Amino acid sequence: MSAIGLLQRALRKYKQDGVRSFLKEGKYSFFESKPVRSVLRYQILEKNGMKPIVYDDLPELSQPVDTIWEVFDDDQRAAVPDPIPPKTRISKTRSFDQVETHSPVSPIVIEIRDCRLLHPFGLTLCEQGVLPETIAKSTSPSSRVGKALSKSVSDHGYREVDNFISGQYPDSLESLPVATPLLPLWGNYYHWTIECLPRLAGVERHQNKTGVKPTIIIPENPSSWMLESLELLGIDDDRLHPLEDHCTVDQLVVPTHPGPTVAECEWVRDQMHDAVDYPTIANDTANNRIYISRRNATRRRVKNEREVADLLRSRGFDRYVLEELSVSDQIALFANAEVIIAPHGAGLANIVYSEFSSIIELFGDSKKTTFYRLAELLGHDYQYTHNPTKFGDIVVNLERLEQCLTKAGLEE
């Protein structure tokens, strides 16, 4: 992004969140830089003998030894797809089918005793090392572990974090008997919906096996849509514990980090569909051709949105701003949608609630596999357009968009 684009985004962020949040994020940006993250990982984690624990070693951590379960039944595990690409950025010249793929691992849930959680993201430490599964897939944890550690140092200072990791902390520190962390590294709708909510399938399996309802550790200042989604999934308020400081947990219930897999996505979709009675709501409130606007976002707004909206209106589309809708209404909207057009952004996570829809994603000067891979998992038809950008916003090429509409059978 250009310097002007960064300044424009910063000003929008300042207007939306205020000066205190703006300055705090600026401080964190320093600690999050790759050189600083690398130094912190070495100075704090490796110095204290804390190395990431890989997926294959998780069964050895489960205490007692029989407290490890597959999250889904055999018939559901059979739905794990062919290899899929990782969530990554790719160059303009590469197509999605050229990206190296991997096979998602089968989700499991385990119990681990005597854990420590770092505020604010719940980076988890146990006797054997760092447990990345609370924030990242253990197959590639380095970047996310560094991010979580950097944020903790930014908020609490180097000395306090170093002492906590080395086991020096006050007796007054809060301790929870049985808990599971639900703490996204990024507080946006995508990371919550796709990386946090599927973990509740593991919590449900644990509860069915043990009869115990673990406390759900959530962000210190959860958004309204986080709380609404938990309510829809049947999590009562008295089970929620906002993480306001480091804490210890006697028995940590750990569902592995979502792949995601088909079974995980379908579990979230089916639970939410049942919760909102979507056929009734959708038929009353939504069109089945929808365009998602990012007019309230700090970046990747559509610069020529009026022209885009006029074109799409002629093809039967309605425009929606997701920030103005409840989670229930977003679920209903996407569940009923046959065609979904949107700039790349967190709101497209809602395609997890759609069934065999046609997706057209609008990219700027870079593209990511995020929603392509989700569409592939869920059996959606997927297209995208590359477009020029101006100061971080997208200028949609109307001719390319029309070509996508024609390919999707949406002629005038």
TrEMBL record:
Disulfide bond keyword on record: no
MF-aspect GO terms: glycosyltransferase activity
Start and end residues of each Glycosyltransferase 61 catalytic domain: 189-355
PANTHER family according to UniProt: GLYCOSYLTRANSFERASE (PTHR20961)
Organism of provenance: Natronobacterium texcoconense
Pfam name, any one: Glyco_transf_61
Segments traversing the membrane: none
Keywords of the record: Glycoprotein, Glycosyltransferase, Transferase
Name of this protein: Glycosyltransferase 61 catalytic domain-containing protein
Keyword Transferase part of the UniProt annotation: yes
Matches recorded under InterPro entries: Glyco_transf_61_cat (IPR049625), Glycosyltransferase_61 (IPR007657)
